[in-house]
Amino acid sequence: MIPRSPFRIPLRLFQDTGRPQWLEARNAIPTTIRPFSTTPAFNAKAKIGARAHRHKRLKNSRPRISDAYTIRLLRQKKAALLARQQELNVIREEAKGNPIHGAPESTPFVKSLKLAMPEDKIHIPNTEDGLAPATPPNVIDIALTSQADILSSENTGVAKPKYLNNFLSPEDLDRYTQGSRDLTRPLPNEDRDAADPEKQAQAAQAHMVNHAIRTAALARAMAVENTSSRQRHRINTQRVIEEFGRHTTDRTLRPRIDREGNVVQKERVGPDTGSSEVQIGVLTAKIKLLAAEFEGRSRNDKFNKRNLRLLLHRRQKLLRYFHRKDRGGDRWQHLIEKLGLTPATWEGEIEVR
After folding, report:
1. Which of 271, 276, 267 is nearest to 326 (CA)?
2. Does the reported pTM lie above 0.70?
3. Inter-CA distances, 115 with 133, 201, 226, 261, Å
4. pLDDT digits (tens, 9 = 90+) for 122-180
5. Number of C-alpha atoms within 13 angstroms, CB side, residue 289?
């Protein structure tokens, strides 16, 4: 059955197909069905515009060079420019630094993280001229000219560090050594007539020598050079908190000023352990330890390689945040100069191979 519409009526059927030809009821004029085509209609103006653009491009193009000498010069100039471009790329990559270590040469503070010692630690060996030259921090030596010169802990050859092993402080070590000296001191002879002053002087001298040797041995045992990696990391964390904590930098660096010109400085209770610079310093100490093991004999350690990558990305996020907040401030400059960080540590993609 042929469908009917209230607006259109069939006029007649085609003889070949039998399909109806529809008429509009309003004007009763037969409509022609236009077939759908994806080909755009011909646009003479667009074609003329394309020809004009092509003609203008050919007109402004360089003429073809047929001289062999000129072609050789152009090729040499291009090769020189490409070589200079490669040199500049190498210089830019070197300026960015290493995403793991930062600057090519480590700063004194970063070098001191390896031994968990302050960079200005000075050992006190006994010398003939009375001077106390500074020795490398990885050397602890007891240089003695004679046993009679050992009269105090200053001549033991070991400087008094600020941090010790097993959660000891220098004050505790001094108190223990003084107590040991008092307990082992030889008792005087109660009989004055039978006492020999020379023997008592020799006994006191021998006691002081033995006490100095025991003090030096105890200092060696409590020194951070002979401690474990976990204890070194604990000491390095304390040093980072004291170096970059805002409870310390607020007294030495200029305060931050907001957009309205007001000084942004908060009163703190206790040490600062959660600011961005402290977290970056602690992560840098961990990265230095893992990178030294990974670049050495543990090259195929996949577990530590993943841990190193996670630490690098975490430090990169903190550096990006701190760079966005305070890239022109004194705290940012102090952090970058102390840790030797470069743009490669917070820009671009970090890969550990």
Report:
1. 276
2. no
3. 20, 41, 9, 43
4. 343 333 433 333 333 333 333 333 333 333 334 444 445 677 888 888 888 888 888 88
5. 21
